[in-house]
What does this fold into?
Amino acid sequence: MTKKTILVGLDGATFTLLDPFMQQGVMPFLKSFVEQGVRADLRSVTPPLTPPAWTTVLTGRSPGHHGIFDFFQADGPGSTTIRLATSGDIQVDHVAELVNRAGQRASVINFPVHFPPLPIDGAVIAGWMPWRQLRLGCYPPDLYDRLKQLPDFNPRELAMDMALEARATEGCDEDEYVEWVGLHIRREERWLEVLNYLSDNDPTDLTAVLLDGPDKVQHLCWRFLDPALWPAQPTAEETRIREASIGYYRRLDTILAALVEKAGPDATVVMVSDHGFGATTEVFHVNSWLEQAGYLAWSQDVSDELNEGDTLGMGHLSRHSRWLDWDRTKAYVSTPTSNGIHIVRAEQHDGRGVAAADYAAFRAELIEALLSYVDEDGKPVIAAVATREDAFDGPAGALAPDLTLTLRDGGLVSILPADPILAPRPQPVGTHRPLGVFMAAGPGIRQGAAIGEMSLLDVTPILLHSLGIQVGDDLEGHVPTGLYEPEYLANRPVDVVTRGDAGKVQPAKSAGQVIYDEEAEAVLMARMRELGYVE
Amino acid sequence: MNTNTQTITRNDVWEATISLLEQLAEDWDFGEEITGDTLLFTDLGFQSLDAVILGNTLQERFGRPIPFATLLTEIGQRSVNDVTVDEWVDFTTLSLQAATSVN
It folds into this structure.
């Protein structure tokens, strides 16, 4: 039996903030929602990062199976060239495809790694799209033109303006914080308008939407939001920013109320975050540490391209491979978003790097050196190091980093050259934590219950069960029995079907096809030089 | 359009690129004519991510990956970090014609 099911993604939401906001009257709707449903801590993936985590939510598979590890993707195993991760990189079935296969419709709105949009029966609007090209992230193809007719439609607010995003993630003046928060209030309002339109004109059995404001606001404004960091004697400016930030959650609460009301009393509503949040207070310059430890060497290009005090923008990332001297580099970090160290394998780099026979010993030596790194007080800086097998076990793991670091403050590394290697931040800022939130209410769901820790892997099985669809045994999570009233679950048991580890019914679009190796790319650029296009 | 098994000409790429850019430009109320000399970043207001999305869309249209990361890397080395529509079309055409299937 089909039951309308809504998944509301709250990027980065954490009970560290939601609990006091519910208690203090900032989020009265959410308080009543939780009282009428179930709540649980929700464990994220390693690393607790937006693209792999939401992909796990929407596939029920871990990163080693679904193949998304970061915002960026290596071009192939061992490649030093990175590109944006796309939906074509996902190696397993999406929950929307499973729903379609059961004869039901789905809409998937504003989630990352959804470009190009999947051609599903329903609707897709890809998240993390530049506003100028939001049209290309919409499916069916006429969807964007229909959305343009909405009274308050504004792609610049709905999607991303990278110049604004960069200001917020790389630092901006405090007088811009309030405007940043305001933008996210307007963005959530725009998404509510889109959802209401789809609900009225193109309803689907499963509706999944991501509201990314909590993550964006918390990264910048964490020290104004976390009760543990709030000063006893705040300045007027600090108070103004805190009130504006709390205003975001106050508005979010009314938007959630509108979403749930629109869904109707018979719908099951599941709210989850992809990871939690906390403070980071220092910056670990991992590539400089690797250099000092003798594993990495910078090229001349790095000093030509970077000025002192530079932060890392999107433009720099595509050129990072030029910063390293590949004849003298054995390990490096290519993105500032995943804390992942790649080991240069000789068999993939014309004999440069670590020989296959030496790999295990080299990796063990590197792990020991990382865990032995201490600050001026003799305290370890790196809390844990996960190997590829630990974090990304599965057929897609070959593209994953060899090692993934967990820093002691939960923060993300910097990949820029710097001295000193470990530096305090001027002020604490927000960063990800492994425990996010799960809240659900609807028919058969227990009321006012807090259940034990769940996993992101459990969300897809819960959605399928709610829709009355069989749950494949290839999914790695399960429907927690504590989620439902026993009698309800007895009448509506979880129907697990054997699929084996089938992966994706349709192979990933990016698999196979055409490969450009370094030589082919060099020839290509030589032709461009001949044409006078490249200096 | 999937021309994986067909010969792709510069005109094919030009028409696909211009058609796409003109459709998108309507969404931003960009009123000027887009020509081969139009600069993606300076004239159309592109950011790096826009170029990535445009490149991915063309890959989908032609059914073959194109190494746009290489082009963006080269653009980053220039004194003026920009690319004209003509350059973009030439790079895409060369990439598609040079590509060899491993299937």
Observations:
- The two ends of chain B are 19 Å apart (CA to CA).
